[in-house]
Amino acid sequence: MKRIRMVIRYDGTNYSGYQVQPNGNTIQAELEKALRKMHKGQLIKVTASGRTDARVHAIGQVIHFDTPLQIPIGNWKRALNSLLPEDIQVSSVDQAADDFHARYDTSGKEYRYYVRNHQEPDPFRRNYTYHVKAAIDIDAIKAACRYLEGEHDFTSFCSPKTDIKGSKVRTIYQADVSKRGDEVIFIFRGSGFLYNMVRILVGTLLEVGRKERRPEDIQRIIAAKDRIAAGKTAPPQGLFLWKVFY
Amino acid sequence: MKRIRMVIRYDGTNYSGYQVQPNGNTIQAELEKALRKMHKGQLIKVTASGRTDARVHAIGQVIHFDTPLQIPIGNWKRALNSLLPEDIQVSSVDQAADDFHARYDTSGKEYRYYVRNHQEPDPFRRNYTYHVKAAIDIDAIKAACRYLEGEHDFTSFCSPKTDIKGSKVRTIYQADVSKRGDEVIFIFRGSGFLYNMVRILVGTLLEVGRKERRPEDIQRIIAAKDRIAAGKTAPPQGLFLWKVFY
Questions:
Q1: Which pLDDT score is estimated for A21?
Q2: Which residues of chain A have pLDDT under 50?
Q3: How much is the pLDDT for B35?
Q4: Is some CB atom of chain A closer than 8 A to the CB atom of B181?
Q5: Is A246 known as a binding-site position?
Q6: Inter-axis angle of helices B138-148 and B197-209, to 10 degrees?
Q7: In angstroms, how far is the first alpha carbon of chain B from the final one?
Q8: Taking every annotated instance into account, which residue ranges of this chain make up the domain Pseudouridine synthase I TruA alpha/beta (chains A, B) (predicted)?
């Protein structure tokens, strides 16, 4: 047996999320279906760095699995891509240490979130951006981002539906926003992210950008340790799991 | 009654094409459904500049219809966009002359075709580009484009499934290709285009780009007046009806 580590990208539009669940097609189920074909019907269980929700995308999701196959490492990518649907693709494949673990070994993650800031929706970007008509004050959001960076208890930015029982202290190394044409792009790098955390961060920062909150309100929101203190959860389709660090 | 002229854009991915047909959802059916809601159940028939096939997109499709409603012209766009699905949007609305006709009055059209030229497919561009792995010689295609421009009988570039009985003489004002990053973009402006003409032009030009044909072969292909003489029909998802001229 050897352990394989893969970087994959996917368009989450037509999936109920990453993780296998009773009703709904998922990224994990497609990966395991393709691997099952390569393994003559044998179930190969795949472990990812973490889940992504329905309609959320990934550019650099990382997974691992164990295989008895003696395929040269350079051939895996093409073999799997020929079996996977067009909206899920393997970017790179490496042999990993036997004890490598895609979830437990992560040292951090980068997420990006895309907003279309324009009077009109764009039919071609509808599945990859959140459409916001109102003017967005980028500088106000940048100021708010400064209060997010660092080690904090992010309970206020965690969905109550989480199954995390332990500490909600995480470190955000970088929170930033920029504008490119009609798109506003958020970047978050951190040690780890709670359930819906990036989408709640974006929803709250957009309220700052629309002058409904002040940048310095972020301090109070963090201190509250209460989901009610933060803003709305931004919708899933603007979110991309960009990179996983080990 | 007044005649309304609208420019619409749509992502054709999830449609069986523009024109209403027995089995399948179409752009026209969605437009007429939205108009029917605005007209309290009355059928408002819509006429477009021309059809687009299943999975083909439009940036500047033009349609017209007649309405008894006394709505200020500035309010139509928002009213319709609130009733249309996210992948079909109205870009502009004007009152037209009573005898304006979206199909008969066209003086020309511009189509663009997008190719992704990269070793790997991109899950996020799969519905908007044709993925071609082989190296493409842009200069060879540019040379071939020179033979296409002008007035010709384009029978060789017309699907035999066409219902056109008359002349297949058309004028191509401009045929051009350019490369931007990993994308190769074709532009065709002409007096009119036959059934599948742009897709057969692109399929043939890509064979020139892959050195399977020489640029000057275009002359022979046009002269043959036989679909067999030209190249393969490129797939629909790279094609955009970009602009209609009147």
A1: 79
A2: none
A3: 97
A4: no
A5: no
A6: 140
A7: 22
A8: 7-105, 144-246
Q: Percent of chain B at pLDDT above 90?
A: 95
Does residue B1 have a pLDDT over 80?
Answer: yes
> What does the alpha-carbon distance between residue A170 and residue A160 come to, in Å, rounded to a whole number?
17
Q: Is A141 within 8 Å of A228 (Cβ atoms)?
A: no
Domain containing B191 equals: 108-245
pLDDT score, position B24 = 78
What pLDDT is attached to residue A91? 97
Q: Which chain A positions have a beta carbon within 8 Å of B88's beta carbon?
A: 123
One domain, residues A130 and A57: no
A145 C-beta neighbours (distance < 10 Å), count: 22
- On whether both B91 and B193 belong to a single domain, the answer is no
Tokens, residue B132: 């071609």
The number of domains in chain A is 2
DSSP-H helix ranges across A1-116 = 27-38, 76-83
- The CATH number covering residue B213 comes to 3.30.70.660
**Does B121 share its domain with B225?**
yes
What chain A residue is nearest to B77 in terms of C-alpha separation?
Answer: A120
B172 CA to centre of own chain = 15
Output the CA torsion sign for B78, B80, B85, B86. Answer: negative
What is the pLDDT at residue B186? 98
Rounded CA-CA distance A213/B5 in Å is: 43
- A-B CB pairs within 8 A amount to 41
Is A59 found in the same domain as A154? Answer: no
| Known catalytic residue at A53 | yes
Collect all residues of chain B within an 8 Å Cβ-Cβ radius of residue A121: 81, 86, 89
The answer to the question of residue B101 being in a domain is no
For all residues of chain A together, what is the average pLDDT? 96
Whether residue B225 is found in the same domain as residue B113: yes
Give the catalytic positions of B in this structure. Answer: 53
A42: its two tokens: 């044998």
- Residue B230 sits in the same domain as residue B141: yes
Active-site residue identified among A11, A53, A87, A176: A53
Q: Is B74 exposed, middle or buried (0-12, 13-18, 19+ CB in 10 A)?
A: exposed
H/E stretch holding A130 reads strand A130-132
